[in-house]
Amino acid sequence: MNRTRRSAAALLAALGALSLAGCGGGDTTTAAATGERRVAFLAPSTSMRALAYDYPNFAVQLQERCPECVVDLHTAADQAEQNRQAAQAVADGAEALVVVAADGAQASELVTRAGSAGVPVVAYDRLIRDVPLDYYVSFDGGAVGELGGRAILDAVGERAGEGVVVMLQGDPGDNNAGLFAAGAHSVLDGRVTIAAERSVAGWSADQAEVEMAAALRELGGRPLLGVYTAYDGLAAGALEALTDAGYSGVPITGQDAEVGALQRILAGTQTMTVFKDLPAQARATADLVADVLSGAEPGTTTTTDNGAGSVPTVLLQPEAVGKAEIRSKVLESGYTTAEALCAGSASALCQEAGITG
Fold it and tell me: What is residue 49's predicted lDDT score, i.e. its pLDDT?
């Protein structure tokens, strides 16, 4: 199989015969009779990246490594529902669970139940805390925050003492949000004045607009030098509030290299985004699960303390992307396409940047 990343649409089409989308589990009798080995991939129903990148790439790669494996997708509105789905998946014969926790602080129940049944759990992207956990695969969250913080410092330059910075952090229920925040603070603290810092429930762009508007009211007339946000959707909401308040040209960061963010970077309204190779994360997880199912020792890069012990971990490294890096780091990797980036009104921006389909 070509290791180059495939588009989400192509991956989803390819998965039609390989996976079961929805909230139900597989038929264990059928699986046993046909020799299928079932793996459950559980994610919040609000996670668009799980549907577009994580699950498709994971399922394709796992079936390449384990042709008899079938991946069942389960999406949940909250952690209680996800816990029930995990229990049902185990009852239906799942041999491994890959879990994007709806709430990492409340997902210990599903890990405990799976462990009692001898079913390994891989915490995917979001750490599950305070329970013995088999594996964790994610990006280096501290490095993500550091990249955003450095981008703010670079944009502010010698004006650091002439104004203030606002920080919009992610959902408090997501362990990653704390990692991103700590990384950003390690760079910004003592170098700029942080006038306001707010967490955004659900990583919601709409809520980010509300929080940014409230933060602007706390400035007390001080010049706004920059806005650190932990996610491209938060940057989009923050920009709405800034525009409504009459601000323009304020440096602002993001994360995830979403097409909308890349278009804003081309337009000059967003400074940068942190690029995480999501297909590579999914493939690394599939390789880990395939090794576990085959009885091989999976390769990990480090360990993570989740409050209940050291968890074998695979950590991937993020990269900063500004206008100059969109082609080399995002397009050439296949993460997204020039056609998607340059659609509609963004066509002129791409032409100006020398990006063509």
Answer: 85
Within 10 Å of residue 334's Cβ, how many Cβ atoms? 15
What is the average per-residue pLDDT within 289-313? Answer: 96
Strand partners of residue 194: 165
Helix residue ranges per DSSP H, the chain: 8-14, 28-34, 48-49, 55-65, 79-91, 108-116, 141-156, 175-188, 205-216, 232-244, 259-267, 278-294, 338-341, 346-353
Amino acid, single-letter form, for residue 144:
V
Work out the mean pLDDT of the chain and round it to a whole number.
Answer: 90
- 6 or 349, higher pLDDT: 349
Domain architecture of the chain: domains with CATH = 8-133+277-318 (3.40.50.2300), 142-275+322-353 (3.40.50.2300)
- Torsion angle of alpha carbons 124, 179, 76, 83, nearest 10°? 70
Can you say whether residue 90 is alpha, beta or left, with left for phi > 0 and alpha for psi between -120 and 50 degrees? alpha
Task: Report pTM.
Answer: 0.83
